[in-house]
Amino acid sequence: MSTALSNMAGKLAERLGMDAGDDLVGVLKATAFSGEATDAQFTALLIVANQYGLNPFTKEIYAFPDKQNGIVPVVGVDGWARIINGHDQFDGMEFEQDIESCTCKIYRKDRNHPISVTEWMDECKREAFKSKSGYEVKGPWQSHPKRMLRHKAMIQCARLAFGFAGIYDKDEAERVIEGTTAEVNVGRESDSRRPELISKGEDAAKSGAESFKAFWLGLGNEERQIIGVIEKKRLYELSLKSESAEEAEFTEAE
User: Fold this and answer.
1) Highest-scoring range by mean pLDDT, 144-158, 173-187, 223-237
2) Whole-structure pTM over 0.70, yes or no?
3) CA separation for the pair 154, 164 (Å, rounded)
4) Which of 58, 109, 209, 215 is spaced 20 to 30 A from 239 at the CA atom?
5) CA 142, 143, 144: angle at the middle one, nearest 5?
6) For residues 70 and 40, what is the distance between their CA atoms, to the nearest angstrom?
7) pLDDT tens digits for 51-72?
8) What is d(CA 63, CA 32) in angstroms, rounded to the nearest whole number?
9) What is the model's pLDDT at position 160?
10) Nearest-angstrom CA–CA distance, 61 and 204
């Protein structure tokens, strides 16, 4: 066992009130790592676990080996909840959700306004796939899609609110390992229909978030791809600003 691994295991044991030793490392490797792990890979995992105060024994954090002989640190939902609630500046969170999207707002004690992130079902959901035997394999996105989207919104919002970096949820980690992490969808910029679609989206967004959602739901898959993810997010932010402006005008009128 390397010195670095021994030191990291010792720090973890001290934090959890356990005895350090070779047995501890062996149990941890069996518990917190999917597949065979080198000392370097396991040391990397323990560094992240100690940095965020997570417990590998309760699966708050574990890891997959990646294709470059490194690791992908995976933090379960319970682990994310722990580091969010454990942050000194955390002052609560709230959610707004429908079938298309989920918005998470996190409040910090040292800021006047909440950090807000919206995640969209059509961007996040993973489809069921066929096994080699031809059977359809379903996952949590089929059984609990709203819960999965809520987790996505919470995690992305936590990253912006507190600067959490270098850790993934299980869904993200699987996409990284598979090499299927989607590139940012900039839309089909050369498509002649794009300017008109964006113009219609802007008109809808100027009437507020509900108007924009109705516009987006009325589009076909091809039209959504033409607009693209980046432009969609811009239009949605525009719809929120339009609502805020209307509320301000109403308040002033009173």
Assistant:
1) 144-158
2) no
3) 12
4) 109
5) 100
6) 8
7) 898 988 888 888 877 766 677 8
8) 6
9) 93
10) 43
Q: What is the mean pLDDT of the chain?
A: 83
Query: Which residue do the tokens 């949590």 mark?
Result: 140
Torsion of CA 210, 213, 217, 218, to 10 degrees: 70
Residue 183 is predicted with a pLDDT of 40
3-state secondary structure the chain: CCHHHHHHHHHHHHHHCCCCCHHHHHHHHHHHECCCCCHHHHHHHHHHHHHHCCCHHHCCEEEEECCCCCEEEEECHHHHHHHHHCCCCEEEEEEEECCCEEEEEEEECCCCCCEEEEEEHHHHCCCCEECCCCCEECCHHHHCHHHHHHHHHHHHHHHHHHCCCCCECHHHHHHHHHCCCCCCCCCCCCCCCHHHHHHHHHHHHCCCHHHHHHHHHCCCHHHHHHHCHHHHHHHHHHHHHHHHHHHHHHHHHC
Query: Which string of b and e fits 40-55 if b means at least 16 CB within 10 Å?
Result: ebbbbbbbbbbebebb
Contacts of 162 (CB under 8 A, 6+ apart): 83, 84, 87, 89, 90
Tokens standing for residue 211: 């108007």
Name which residue leads in pLDDT, 26 or 147.
147
**Tens digits of per-residue pLDDT, 217-246?**
888 877 888 888 888 888 988 988 887 766
54 near 83, Cβ under 8 Å? yes
Determine phi and psi for 116, rounding to 5 degrees. Answer: -125, 135
Who has greater pLDDT, 107 or 214? 107
